[in-house]
Batch of 2 targets.
Target 1
Amino acid sequence: MNSSRKSLIDLSGYDWIAVLLCLLLMATGWTMIFASEYNPDTFSGLLNLDKNYGKQLIWIAAGILLFVFIQFIEGRIFQNLAFVILGVVLVLLIAVLFTKPINGSTSWFDIGGFRFQPSEFGKTATALALASLLSLPDVRMQSFTGKAQAFVVIGLPLLLVLIQNDTGSTLVYLSFLLVLFRAGLPSGVFIIGLILIALSIAALMVDKIWGIFHILLIIGNFTLLRFWKKDERLSMGFSVLALLSLYFSGTQMFLTIALQLGLLVLVSALNLLKRNWQITVLTFGGIAVAMLYSSSVNYLVNNILKIHQQERIWVWLRPEKCDPLGSLYNLEQSKYAIGSGGFLGKGFLEGERTKLDYVPEQSTDFIFCTVGEEWGFLGSIILLVLFMTLLLRILYIAERQRLSFAKYYAYSVAAILLFHIFVNMGMTMGLLPVIGIPLPFISYGGSSMISFSLMMSILIKLDSERSTAFR
Amino acid sequence: MSNDLFQSRYKVLQGLVVLIGVVLAFRCFQLQIWDTSYQRKQSFRQIITQYPSRGLIYDRNDSLLIYNLALYDLQATYESVKRSNIDTARFCSFLGLSPLQFSTLMEKDWTDMRFSKRKPFDFMTKIEPDSFARFEEHLYEFPGFESVIRNVRGYPVNIGAHILGYISEVSPKQIEKNKAFYKQGDYIGASGLEMAYEVQLRGKRGEKHVLKDKWGKIQSRYKNGSMDKAAESGYDLVSSIDLTLQRYAEDLMKNKIGALVAIEPSTGEILAMVSAPTYDPNILAIDNKRGNAFALLSSDSTDPLFNRALMAQYPPGSIFKTVLAAIVLQEGAMTHDESLSCPGAFTFGNLRIGCHGHGAITNVESAIQYSCNNYFCNTYKEIINLYGYDFPEKGMNKLVEHLNAFGLGRKIGIDIPGEMMGNIPTIEYFDKRYGKGRWRFSNSASIGIGQGELQITPLQMANLTAIIANRGFFYIPHFAKEFKGDKSDVLKRFKEKQFTKVHPRHFEHIVDGMEKVVLAGTGSRAMISDISVCGKTGTVENPHGIDHSTFIAFAPKENPKIAIAVYVENSGYGSSFAAPIASLMIEKYLKGEIRGEARKALETSMMNANLMSKNPAQSSIRLKNPDKTENID
């Protein structure tokens, strides 16, 4: 009795660095929300609940209270109840589909003016369930059933959020792939994934897919020539031919493609004569699949996606195709706001672009604009360092766990945070497509603040029990 | 954790975190430091011009002649209007628009570079204050609309249209000339004092630096207004006009064609100036009806827009004799007490210029008193033949020199625009007409009686009168007495005495003669009891109809307070209209009222006389070279 009571109030096991980092980020976030909304003419106190900065104070308080509350729950309860929690969240995710859409997505419960987004808690629930699953001794990423179970745990909430028409939150679930990577999902899956992403981007960046075909054929020819004869002069010669053919592909595209295609057939035949069966089939097939894939992506995006979805992709990859006063406007304003900060920024409350509504969603998804504009490069880097330190700290915490559950849960938290930070900041700076997800602890919003607090609270609690925990 | 086969992947994930951090940091560097173009673009900051109020114009006794009147422009920002979803029907009812009109006003050609959906454009302009007041109370209901106040001019007393002038929108040419100040839609003085003193009256524009949100709505002041510049009002102009006298003059000149100029000789300040017919300055004030009024005035055959006082070049007639007398005395070609018998005409060879019966000419005073044609043709002869009969050029040169000093044949430099030079004969003119060395004084003898090639504007006549009143000098006639608070020396040139080349003592004889004109000569209708008026009549034969009458006068004889020239077209003898009008003006100015039954009756008959209904088309003033006219005074 005595010992258990002692463990409840024992603060020595707490990772104060992570706690402090989170509090620092919350304070920064609140300051930025205040800065983006502050108007000296109408200012009437910090606790003005008509303003986001007033409400955010309440959400921060709620987050801290939640943290304290979580510390009284024993860690293994989360492990044991993980699937129950996921089940409850899944029910909520289904229930929310029957509410009235807000801004085109049915992902909010509106209870007495307070909005509540179950998908935010879906992330924590999925993290708990996935960690719980991966901690089972017979679940291995090398096995098919292991993979299947993991994909079901991730896939169910993902699908439900997708149906809600909330692209941003849906994509967040992909971050769990990093946890699976740590758990042993073969690297090949990721390499193929990266190749496909690169191929998609390449396919979308061109008007005509022929250029991609051309490059793919050159790669195929190069590989096969190397296998046919390991002769430096041959590959050098081919490189010259390839460069020439690329140079002329602008004017004589079909001729050069036909040439490369002929060469591919020829080299394949030569390889086959040398009985290099495997490499020939693999290369030939690979090139064919890649060509098919890239043209399907190109076709899909250009002909199947709705205009507004297409626009997001064009704004990201091909801004020159977009109307600067139309689809490109918001992103351009966001970049201008950040860029106009310069090295030291314009100073606290001096961010004109953000304050004057030039930047969309300035206190939620585009809060980083205020950081960039008012605090400049220096402030942006400091914020980035805070985030990266927190992420590395969580990875460190993960690795010191003796319980697999705690370890994978920590990885899940790190993966979710990493995805949010990368996508959110990348989006405001035009590095990634505009996907509406909040910047953890910084963006205004009750659901996200409580969700991230909950996520971190459980992590801190699990970590604090690391020495007393048994396997 | 010995069973963990993928421990090494910890490092991969650490690497991924660092990589993403570096990528984001690099992008920050790119946007915030490398590419400086983002730091330059500042479309959200806008400078709003603050229009100063234009200087007011007062008369010499501080009565208001021009005040500012507010008209309103309504500006709209397309994006804000579309976004705010206003009650269009209600909006239209306030401004009296139809829904169709509303949409035509709203939809601009957005491909045109001048328009932007995010910038305010002129939705309606020149809205009267009455109709705007009702709407303005509800302006807040219609976000996206802003009102801009425009100061235009109001004329409370309806007088002095030609003097005061009007303002109008700047022309593209004027904008080109002064890009720093004017832009399309601004107002600029277009005539009269408004044009002459545009720089003093317009004031200095202010600037308000504001921050606009992306919908074009003003959010706050930039840097708390530290870069703002307040508009500075234009200087108020105290003019030399005597409102009472000006109005009286306009009443006297009503239904007549001609001009009247009254000057205070001791300062050159113009007390009253009328070009008849005139018009109500209010009809050219800026509002939506101005265009019609302008067209109407322009097409009027009596030409009310034409400022006769400065622009009409009339043959002066006998009033010119005073100048000749002064010159001949100065040059010593004749003495003041020379007598000359008048045979009823001036004859020289075949040349004959008739005279009329009058008393004996014993000196220059009586010659002026009786306006003897013979005497002054002789005078002219003496001047031209100063250096001998065969050297008329040198004499002519001397004459031109003198006349120029009298402000004739040149612009005097009055402060309102449009002044004409008049015409005096020159050597070049006669050389061209008769051949070099082939002309003598006799070719231009009619100049001796103020006819022939002579043309003088009413302003020059009035200035001439002032010179005689001052005994030999004048101040450039002007309207601007003072700009309240202005420390520049824009009015300095009106404070400098302009001397003629005639000694003051010679003028005493002219003045005495002019006194006799009124007491016992051709100008007796100008007599005022207990004021010594000095005057000179003139009658100019008009081959198109009734003669023009002219009269110059000043009073009192010693220490003159007013010098006046009146020219009435188609009114007969100089004594019939011009002289009574001048004397009424003098009495009004010096006594403040007209006294005595007879004088009041004269006043009434002058005011009621309608010379325009008789024969309005007889005016000859627009003819550059009027047919030969003959002096019959």
Target 2
Amino acid sequence: MADNDSRSGVVTGPGSTALVGSEFAEVAASVDHAGNGPRLRLEDLRSGRVRFLDALELESIIWLPEGHLRQLLDPSSDRWREDG
Amino acid sequence: MTATVPRAGTDRPDYTRLIQPDRVHGSLYTDPRIFTEELERIWYRTWVYVGHESEVPQPGDYVRKNIGPQDLVLTRDREGQVHLLVNRCAHRANLVCEDESGNSNSFRCPYHGWTYRNTGELLGYPYNKGYGGKGKLDLAMGRVPRVESYRGFVFGSFAADGPSLAEHLGEAAGEIDRLCRLAPEGEIELSAGWLKHRTRANWKLLAENETDGYHPQFVHGSIFSVTGSPIGALYSDRSTAVTRNLGHGHSENDLRPEFRKFGEPMRWFGTTEDRVPEYAAAMRALHGDAADEILVEGAPHVMIFPNLFIAEIQVFVIQPLSAGECVQHSTAVQLKGAPELNRRMVSQSVGSVGPAGMLLADDTEMYERNQRGAEQLRPEWLDIRRGLERERVDERGLTIGTATDETGMRGFWSHYKTLMEDQT
């Protein structure tokens, strides 16, 4: 049954996890309500690593210039680096 | 088959001897050396049909495609531009994409994690100190040097220079136009999914057969009799249909004279207007008085050199793999804005070229028997003279024969010979 959170305007169903996958990566996305406000829960299904993103962080991603996103996609940018 | 005799003074096959106006040598279908030369002079040089823009409708969409044995990825970038990449990592040559299709703006090679934009640009590689840091490598996925579209049909050429796509298509472009004008929105889509038939035959046997009007009454006699189809009669000596050499190796069976004779809208599709009322109404609203002609004349039956065959309601793509093996890719045409007709196109295609279909299975049986026959020693030649003496030039200046003449084959071989003898 849908849970209409009138304070935030977020409409979600309990346990409604969306899967965004390709041959290159698989990520489970759901809205987490454990805190005082909703946040997006992202799980890298290949490593099990989880990251939460709040509304402001998500908005920032939407506004991220294309060039910044490309830098993040460089495997040695953050994840696979000698000093990581 | 007997070994190919090299031309005097060279170690190359003598195509002038092997390709004559009324016959072609059997080794053209069986000699691996000739196949290697075809890859170099045809498949990796001229324009080859690759895919349709409708197969990558959204930014980030990609599909695996091919030019002969070359594994390609057709992509659409964030700006909407279509790219044709060679599916090979610039590091250790691993295949970068594995899935037949997907949506991803970037691709990560599974071998060492090298990551590319869907334009082919290298975005980075893991543990960059081994290369002196970030962005130190001037490498990218391979790109097909020339990519052009016509009415959504995407063609690629591995040659950086050469005739334009418009020059290559020539008169065949009008046949693509004729297909598109059948769509209420003026465009077609290839979105119904692809069937692949691995075929143990040389690719040219297929290309020649596509506009051979001599075989349907024999090879397809059973489907015509079971379905009561009037198509068989189109390919008889009494038929007013013509086989046309469109130039540049392209050819068609122009069935319009027969359809005009009957003057019945949708007869070309084996139905009547009242069975597809929404489609007919949309076309009449769009074209007014001109709709009658469009609905009577129907879709083209055209072989576009070297690998695209538009057979009225289906599209076939021929992919050669070796002298004796190829893959036939087939799908149903979908006319934009015609859901009523599109459903029928899919079911008719399933019936004709599906796994239990009754048309392609018959043709493929002939292709494979033909290949085995061509491997036999005597006689050495395949005959292509049918109708040679009754050919004429039409009002467009194009050579035409009767519905059952081998005019299309002769056009194919004439162009093939030009490409294979090219000294550049």
